[in-house]
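Example 3.2
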Amino acid sequence: MVITKFHKFLEYLSNNFNIDIFKNLNSFSKRISYCDENIERISSGSSRIVYKINDEKVLKLAKNTKGLEQNKNEIQYRSDSYINYILAKIYDYDEDGVWLEMEYAQKMKIADFKRIVGIDFKIYTQALSNFYFHVLNNDVYLWKYNIDPDIEEKIWNNEFISGVFDLLGSYDLTFDDLNRTSTYGIVEREGQETIVIIDYGLSKEIYNKYYNIKRK
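Structure, written as tokens:
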């Protein structure tokens, strides 16, 4: 993940994206055309398009109302000092949630999670399920995973996982996204590889309003 000066120079030569020009574009079609012409589109979902600006930043562009709301949530959460260390940083943003600039993260594999966090990803998601359904929602009828007490103690004392618990406890997030490796990425912080959450805008309110077909 080391980025050399030469690498940055090559990136500069091939990248014509200018955030000031982008900010002055006044329609979705102009924004998407400008981005498609100048930077790499790395993902596109039903609500947002993500572009790679360079090896430090990505641009999340809202496609519709649910994209706007997810961007606004991520903008809001990034200012919470209790949890922002587990979240990809946000550098710049539109007040209305039209777009935001976020820290670029490398893709995370299951093996990366255990290597960096120190807990198996499957056990981590089981602990999340137990915390979400039994601690936060007091659902005594739902299946509870039986986790080894020694591992469970390590989980509760793990800085990253404690931060995720705080995130779930403080905000009305959906649980399902946190089960996916694509929700996480790897960044470098103080010279060390660190796992961060890169997709944290989907609240239960947004999910029920736009994604939960059963409620429609």
